[in-house]
Amino acid sequence: MFPKYDIIVVGAGHSGCEAAVAAANMGARVMLATMNMQTIAQMSCNPAMGGVAKGQIVREVDALGGYSGIVSDHTMLQFRMLNKSKGPAMWSPRSQNDRLLFAQKWRSLLEGHPLIDFWQEMVTGLEVKDGRVRGVRTGLGLVIEGKAVILTNGTFLNGIIHIGEKQFGGGRAGERAAKGITSQLNELGFESGRMKTGTPPRVDGRSLDWSKMEIQPGDENPGKFSFTNTPRPERQLPCHISYTNKEVHEILRTGFDQSPMFNGRIRGTGPRYCPSIEDKIDRFADKDRHQLFVEPEGWDTCEIYVNGFSSSLPEDVQLKALQKVPGFESAKMFRPGYAIEYDYFPPTQLKPNLETRAVDRLFFAGQINGTTGYEEAACQGLIAGVNAYLAINDLEPFILKRSEGYIGVLIDDLVNKGTKEPYRMFTSRAEYRILLRQDNADLRLTPLAASLGMKGLDDRIATVERKNEQVKEIENLFGKISVSPDQINGLLDDFGSARIDQKVKLISILLRPHISISDLKTAVPDLEGQMKQFDQEVCELAEIDMKYAGYIRKEQEMVEKMNRLETVRLHDGFDYYELPSLSTEAREKLSKLRPRTIGQASRISGVSPSDISVLLVHVGR
Q1: Within a domain: residue 215?
Q2: 517 strand-pairing partners
Q3: 44, 126, 255, 362: which one has the fewest Cβ atoms less than 10 Å from its Cβ?
Q4: Taking the CB of residue 588, how many other CB atoms lie within 10 A of it?
Q5: How crowded is the C-beta side of 272, counted as CA atoms within 13 Å?
């Protein structure tokens, strides 16, 4: 019935969609299996993409040829660049999206790819022979053969939904859980665990009093995610902000005895940085209020997402409490919030290319690895898709270093440190933040994607080369143009900066705090004329590179030092138990995780600097 596919992707969430297009764009023939074709790329939780560190990931996915940024730009309700008051390493793009259009755009892109086929049915097991995956089995008993399989099951593996004292099987509201895969993987020697996440109630926007809330508009000059020629939003929908209060908290507490979180029915670990509202008022009992972001779900719907009010309390308690929030006094609920508990597999069971250690050519991506968030899932899917193609063609794996991208940080953290709670990306997890900015993701990563042979990147490479040349032109311009005191002192006075008493190069003025290229163009007419040929994005990139040149140089020196350890290989058959000078914990962890290099070994939890010294001596360094 089916041809033999190169790669089978199980699950069509954000991770599965990116895995499918990445593998297909590498040249693989792909089967995308999903339980429901109507929920491809569903935004299961909030209708938004990006945010702090997550926005950097979306731009990196785009730079590597992924589609998340393109889809986000085409379906945007609002765009905001977060953290603009901080340094550029912290700037993070975020969009509010039309939930329905987002899924429709993804599906149209997938269906438009000639190398992607679809099958709508539950996958209940894997075909494994001689330690290698050979395909998948479906609920109808069909076998689909494939050279590699990528599991992106999200929250569906033995998923249980909790609302108060009610619980029922499901991977998402209105959708059944996936059965069979966990038990088979356990039989194959995989360790599994349980995690928990949740979602807030959805309410009728027509029943809200918007005048009682703070308005949160989008940026006046909105940006976008993709480095391709996608549209910028011509109009935007505002979000709003409201707050809980003591009365809200008291009502919520009346339901605690029926809460699955507090009475022990939920055993999975929930996300530390996105707790439910009941968890927040329990853990932060000293706080009188918590912020709520009231977010639209689309252009043509009155459905509203109440970000910050995730809950698994009984539905009547949720509604009573919600109606005490300013602006929600007459709120009507479309559906209550709920918690969902699901299986995951500790990611230390993976190689750095996201292939499992126990079964060859079987890859895991997304929430099955213990992560949370669309963006974290999407980037894993892309990397798994690329590496599955490389594996079936016996090519070297594609592994991003921590110094090359937030994606590299995320995967390195997962496979070397593991996670016991839903993993979320933050800028603080990256050592080289000034190198890994959102504005330079294409310069960092698009050449790497092109070198892998990913198709459709010719125009992108030309754009990257042109961008690099223009940045150098701007930097040379600022190093050549001189300004006199009478030209520039008025501007310096405006900024409370020290005057000059002789001609200086323009770059020395730009390096002063708070002075930007746009300020200098106003004060120096010659500069205005010479800068007209450069667009705003290139000017901003050049300005950051010039202002932060010293910090960038220091981080590059740190990267070079670390890369020396990355070149020292540890062969697969290394017997760590033969080195008595290693700590017992190091011998156990190194034997289990089998790091490829000394650098990777140094990042494994429990391996100390003295253990690394022992390894360096042993390999002759």
Answers
A1: yes
A2: none
A3: 44
A4: 14
A5: 10
Identify the DSSP state of 294: E
Tens of pLDDT along 347-401? 999 999 999 999 999 999 999 999 999 999 999 999 999 999 999 999 999 999 9
Of the three residues 522, 550, 578, the one that is the final residue of a domain is 550
Residue 484 is given by DSSP the state: -
Lookup result for tokens 């033995």: 158
Any domain includes 422: no
Q: Which helix (H) or strand (E) holds 578?
A: none
Render pLDDT for 288-345 as a digit per residue (tens, 0 to 9). Answer: 999 999 999 999 999 999 999 999 999 999 999 999 999 999 999 999 999 999 999 9
Residue with tokens 């800068």: 531
Query: What's the DSSP call for residue 439?
Result: G
Domain around 297:
202-337
| Closest listed residue to residue 437, CA positions, set 366, 288, 531, 543 | 543
Extended strands (E) in 90-159 = 92-97, 116-120, 123-129, 132-138, 143-151
Q: State how beta strands 362-364 and 143-151 pair.
A: parallel
Q: 309, 337, 365 — which closes off a domain? A: 337
CATH number reported for the structural domain that contains residue 612 in this entry: 1.10.150.570
Three-point CA angle 480, 481, 482, nearest 5° = 115
Tell me the one-letter amino acid at 502. Q
What is the chain's alpha carbon radius of gyration, rounded to the nearest angstrom? 26
Strand 482-483 to strand 504-505: parallel, antiparallel, or no bridges (unpaired)? antiparallel
